[in-house]
Amino acid sequence: MIVLKLKKDSRQRFTIKSIVTTGVVIAIVLISAYSISNSDKLLFLANNPVAEVFLDLGRHTNNAIDSVGEFLGDLLHFKRNANKVKELTEENEKLKQRITDIKSDESKEKSLKKLEKALNYVQGDARMRRVSASIVGKNDGEWYQSFVIDAGADNGIKKDSIVINGKGVVGIVYSVSNRYSKAISLVDSRASVSFKIQGKEDDKGVITTSSTVGKSDLTDVNKLLQGYLFDSNSNVKVGDKIVTSGLGLYPENLPIGKVTKVINDKSKSMKLVKVRPFVDFKKLNDVMVIPPRKIE
Q1: Does the global pTM surpass 0.70?
Q2: Torsion sign (Cα): 119, 125, 131, 135
């Protein structure tokens, strides 16, 4: 049988140290616990130097425990609040997207209704062969003088097809690819159109923006078109509505605009008119394309 023996000094040091340490810890814990629930009953320790040491240690321990507790509580609250903010942010983004989608749907619906109105101007075969399209590109500047639509030969569109919207004539197609087409509007001199005065079928003329009738008006803030009448004695008046006459490529009776000024050019024996177009050439989005008038 083997017996392990410890040196007396070493065993003694271990025992004393253990006892002192254990006693201090127990005292601190007891005083801390007691101070929490019975703080008024510890006043008798105030004048005791030894007890004062333990009392100070207890106070510091309580403060440390309270601080740690508050920190952990704040940390938990912060984490919960952060998660809540994240959830609310995500929900807010979903709602914003939903609102955007709804507005987009409403805009498309309004656009379709406007295009449906254009069908009132289209007759016969052209009504059956119409193509709806959106403008996907335009020239530089604020006016839609030339633009690109997202429909082409694959959709049955051909060169010289007529572009309209719910307010009237927009312009004419001059170039076609399989999926896209290029067009010019009435503010371009290449898109000149023959017109007649509504209710005065014999009074006809041509809308043009060439230099012979004042190209400077292309810079007018109201974007007025200009034209002239074939008969210089025509009884055209301010406020008269003009529509396509059916001469040339444009089908008959498509709305163009309203006469805002009549000018008698005696030097050229011409009667000129300024016309405010029904179409807003600053705001074009969706259009309808119809076949040009057949010229025999």
Answers
A1: no
A2: negative
